[in-house]
TrEMBL record:
It comes from Thalassobacillus cyri. Residues 381-427 form the Thiamine pyrophosphate enzyme TPP-binding domain. Keywords: Pyruvate, Thiamine pyrophosphate. InterPro entries: DHS-like_NAD/FAD-binding_dom, POXB-like, THDP-binding, Thiamin_PyroP_enz_cen_dom, Thiamin_PyroP_enz_TPP-bd_dom, TPP_enzyme_TPP-bd, TPP_PYR_POXB-like. It holds the Pfam family TPP_enzyme_N. Coiled coil: none annotated. One of its GO terms (molecular function) is catalytic activity. It comes from the Bacteria. This is Pyruvate oxidase.
Length: 443
């Protein structure tokens, strides 16, 4: 039997999982695996970053854009600590990420060796899977388990490996686990669907607040909204799910949102929350009936009291409701706020077209809009820039990524790096923290 280095076995397994690049920095407690990655450089690219936080944020951004797992790696000690911000971003935005973290040599663990820290304790809060391999024989099965749990739980998996294990020969060809994972099919009960239809039939002023959970259900969202004559408000993470200029769209909500969105929300008699955990309670009305659709049952009613919770996939649930309800005739509420939104767009355009010296953010966004390609990826940083992009940069069919729930500054450039790797043929405007550096560029 031909024996292989365990690091070689792991790189082959990464390829079998469909992983084609890894973000990281070389260093003492990861160099053995770096050597194995070098041998696979044509198929499994090592993207060397200049700081581990960039690698973790890029891995999270890649996962947000594609739905595929993002992979980063670091040494023990300081490198592992630097990963934390990016990993918390992935946790907060529910992005599947694998972090392969080196550790000091096996015989040195527990001796307070150079750069040794308690990695298992440090990663405990951020990870859905957090294990350290004790022998090389465990590594293939632990890797399968780590990737599977990251996908299934949409979170961070951390696999900690003393560097000497990568160099050891892997002698056991049989594995205890298999690759791949299976998504459960979640659909609301007939009783809950009946209750939701009753509420929708009785509503005169329904409004939809949709989040990133509708990213793959934009057509169903629009059909449902047209059917019940409801305007759509999008969370920040859902920007671009439908065009900002779509007649049903009232833009974003909250501090970064539009006035029509706020007033429509406060005027509504039924809120339909879809794929969102909207955190800003002050921007939601009190005492209004609500329906919530989410594929995570534990999210139902978590941020807002709901009368009916529909535990199910947004795409299938919206399609079912649309097909099993009579179309509403009264569109007066929708028409009222469509008119207000038209006035809002007119005022924004006037502000964007002003000629001022120095140039202000709305004018920068206007010029970016003129050169932004239809299939561009917008990687937006956090701060005032978030307000400017949200309010003044209308998206048509572009993808949009940001550090959403954690809202960490410095995520724009790692997001652009990840987007370039995910979609190398698409042009990438980078919305950075420096307002006057917003211009189309390719990395």
């Amino acid at each position: 039997m031909l024996e292989k280095r365990t690091g070689t076995v792991m790189t082959e397994m990464l390829l079998e999982w469909g992983i084609n690049h890894v973000y990281g920095m070389p260093g003492d407690s990861i160099n053995e695996l770096i050597d194995d990655l070098r041998k696979q450089e044509e198929n499994l690219k090592f993207i060397q970053v200049r700081h581990e936080e960039v690698g973790a944020l890029a891995a999270a951004s890649y996962a947000k854009l594609t739905g595929k797992i993002g992979v980063c790696m670091s040494i023990a000690g300081p490198g592992a600590i630097h990963l934390m911000n990016g990993l918390y971003d992935a946790k907060a935005d529910r992005a599947p990420v694998l972090a392969i973290v080196g550790q000091v040599q096996s015989e040195e663990i527990g001796t307070d060796a150079f750069q040794e820290i308690n990695l298992e304790r440090m990663f405990d809060d951020v990870a859905v899977f957090n294990k350290r391999a004790a022998t090389e024989a465990q590594l293939p099965d632990l890797l399968n388990q780590a990737i599977r749990e990251a996908y299934v739980n949409k979170g961070v998996s951390v696999l900690i490996v003393p560097d000497d294990l990568f160099a050891k020969k892997f002698k056991n060809e049989s594995r205890l686990t298999s690759q791949g994972y299976y998504r459960p099919e979640v659909f609301p009960s007939e009783k809950s669907l009946k209750e939701a239809r009753s509420l929708l039939d009785g509503a005169k002023k329904p409004i939809i607040l949709a989040g990133k959970g509708v990213k793959n259900a934009s057509e169903e969202l629009v059909s449902f909204a047209e059917h019940i004559k409801a305007p759509i408000i999008l969370s920040l993470l859902a920007k671009g799910v439908i065009p900002d200029q779509h007649p049903l769209c009232l833009g974003q909500h909250g501090q970064i949102g539009t006035k029509p969105a706020y007033h429509a929300m406060m005027d509504a008699d039924l809120i339909v929350l879809i794929g969102t955990q909207f955190p800003y309670r002050d921007f939601l009305p009190d005492g209004v009936r609500a329906i919530q659709i989410d594929n995570k049952p534990e999210h139902l009613g978590k941020m807002y009291p709901v009368e009916v919770g529909l535990a199910g996939d947004a795409k299938e649930t919206l399609a079912y409701l649309t097909a099993h309800m009579s179309e509403k005739k009264d569109d007066s509420f929708l028409k009222e706020y469509q008119g207000k939104m038209k006035e809002w767009h007119t005022k924004l355009l006037e502000e964007k077209k002003l000629e001022q010296n120095p140039m202000h953010a709305p004018q920068v966004m206007y010029h970016l809009e003129q050169v932004m390609e239809k299939n561009a990826v917008i990687s937006c940083d956090v701060g005032n820039v978030t307000v400017w992009v949200t309010r003044f940069l209308p998206l048509l069919q572009q993808d949009f990524i940001i550090s959403g729930w954690l809202a960490t500054m410095g995520s724009g450039l790692p997001g652009a790096i990840a987007a370039q790797l995910a979609y190398p043929d698409r042009r990438l405007p980078y919305a950075g923290m420096e307002a006057l550096l917003w211009y189309p560029r390719t990395l």
